Amino acid sequence: MAKIAFIGLGNMGGPMAVNLVKAGHDVTVFDLVETSVQTAVSEGATAAGSAGEAASNAEVIVTMLPAGKHVRSVYTDQGSILDSAPNGSLCIDSSTIDVGTARDVIGVAEQRGKLMVDAPVSGGVAAAQGGTLTFMVGGSDSAFAKAKPILDVMGKNIFHAGDAGAGQAAKICNNMLLGISMIGTCEAFALADKLGLDRQKLFDISSTASGQCWSLTSYCPVPGPVEASPANRDYQPGFAVDMMLKDLRLAQDAAQTSGAVTPLGAQAAAIYSLFSANGHGGLDFSGIIKMLQGDI
Ligand code: NAD
């Protein structure tokens, strides 16, 4: 069993850290929010007073933080993870952040004698609790091989996407596609309603025809056809609009930096941005159909 430091015990990190404890690992935790630390301690983790202190004795350091600036600071600030973690230790950053920061921080970690992967996740809080996350991993073969048994405890599908930053690239490409396909699916239902076409009939036909996609068949944005959809729970998340917006903005930043042409990704970011600005950032992202239909 490994000595693991876990930094960032929010909605996702909290249950992920608990799964590592339950698997028998020796887990030391740190978060800025004391109650989150105490929850992890009540499940068998040990509290540390800072990220650097948690990492000082660790073989593996896992971080689950909000954004790139937090990741850069928690790794590279004086006295923090890269100063204190033992040489040869493995760092796993599972936050969803920009590709540039992921590559930079991994570069610094390697210069300072650590192995490091970016390993963002797909799947929400339920998957974090159930240990069924999908991990998209970027980094060297040796870092991936060392990370895999740890990620297996927290996830069900572990993909080695490529070199440093490739995990973040996979995550934003996937979520840009998801945001676009959800808006397209919502527009199809909005048009069907105007044309008097029964929603269930559109679902039955399109889910076996060329319009088939995950947003339709697994996460249908209208109540009825798919029992598990947030549409059946008044669009409670699920995957919140503001989370989707964050990923769409990361995709647009990456498109601008790399020169990729993504006009529909830009439109999706603008549409979700408007929905969020109207006060609906906490709704599930499939709730965008309500804006397209003029309901909210
Ligand atoms: P969260 O805001 O609930 O948790 C982030 C935690 O990091 C908080 O507890 C915060 O106190 C802590 N933190 C911030 N700065 C810190 C610092 N300097 N030192 C120590 N702790 C610090 O966020 P979350 O929902 O757990 O998401 C975490 C990451 O996972 C994000 O990048 C998010 O985009 C991604 N993600 C979230 C979901 C989801 O459904 N929530 C799904 C997939 C990916």
User: What would the average pLDDT be, to the nearest integer?
Assistant: 97
DSSP strand count: 9
Tally of individual helices: 14
What sort of overall outline do the alpha carbons produce when their principal axes are compared? elongated
Rg on CA atoms, Å: 20 Å
Question: How would you characterize this protein structure?
Answer:
The protein is an alpha/beta fold. The chain has two domains: 3-163, NAD(P)-binding Rossmann-like Domain (Rossmann fold); 169-292, N-(1-d-carboxylethyl)-l-norvaline Dehydrogenase, domain 2 (Orthogonal Bundle), CATH 1.10.1040. It has helices spanning 13-22, 34-42, 51-55, 68-76, 81-84, 99-111, 125-130, 141-154, 166-195, 199-206, 214-217, 241-258, 263-280, 288-292, and strands at residues 3-7, 26-30, 46-47, 60-63, 90-93, 115-118, 121-122, 133-138, 155-162. The chain has a six-stranded parallel beta sheet with strand order 3-2-1-4-5-6, sandwiched between helices. A three-stranded mixed beta sheet has the order 7-8-9. Helix 9 (166-195) packs across helix 13 (263-280). The model has no long low-confidence stretch (mean pLDDT 97). The structure holds nicotinamide-adenine-dinucleotide (NAD). Residues 7-13, 30-33, 36, 51, 64-66, 70, 74, 95-96, 121, 124-125, 239, 243, 246 line the site of nicotinamide-adenine-dinucleotide (NAD).
